[in-house]
Design goal:
196 residues; mainly alpha; 2 domains; 72% helix; disordered C terminus
Length: 196
């Protein structure tokens, strides 16, 4: 809430973090958040905590419903086998047991072999994760955007933060410095409107 950035960029960072948390790209999610936040000009810091939603303890409860959704969607076009919960859990455990570090060649060999072994499972999981992640990230964007705006305008700490931004704007204008980019223009414009 106190990150010195626009509500849009903060909320977009949260949405990207939620989306990446739902992808089954374990070990790469943080890097994917940074890359996506850079591409979409979102706040990189606000999205990083959300990738820890999916961790070795929550992997099965998070990914099992996503797999079921992906399997149901993929069954619309053609008949696909459905894994049981025990098979799903054992596949995840097999992957985690074969994990030797992100940069270790053996990890990627184990991952590749597991993907070949469970290709139907992998495709269904990715489809389900992408759909659920997209829906949750849209909800997260609008919810966090409204929450950030509400906090900044209706709480004492938020108002103090906005007043601090107003003082910075006045200092910049006193020095003759014009806003250089989109974030500074927002800060300059929103500070004028939000004097309380």
């Amino acid at each position: 809430m106190h990150i010195d950035d626009t509500p849009h960029r903060l909320a977009l960072g949260v949405a990207i973090g939620i989306f990446m948390a739902w992808t089954p790209a374990l070990g790469l999610q943080s890097a994917l958040v940074i890359v996506a936040a850079t591409i979409f000009r979102a706040n990189k810091i606000s999205g990083l905590p959300f990738v820890w939603i999916t961790n070795p303890l929550t992997i099965v409860p998070v990914y099992w419903p996503n797999y079921l959704i992906g399997n149901a969607i993929m069954n619309i076009s053609c008949e696909r086998p459905r894994m049981t919960f025990r098979m799903f859990e054992s596949a995840i455990k097999e992957f985690l047991n074969g994990y030797c570090g992100l940069l270790n060649h053996q990890t990627w060999t184990n991952f590749y072999n597991l993907m070949l072994k469970f290709i139907d499972f992998t495709v269904d999981l990715w489809v389900g994760c992408l759909i659920v992640g997209l829906i949750l990230s849209v909800i997260a964007y609008f919810a966090s955007y409204r929450l950030i705006n509400w906090y900044r305008h209706h709480t004492p700490h938020g108002r103090a933060f906005m007043q601090k931004m107003l003082r910075r704007k006045k200092l910049r204008l006193a020095k003759g410095k014009e806003p250089e980019n989109e974030v500074e223009k927002y800060r300059a414009g929103s500070s004028d409107k939000q004097q309380i």
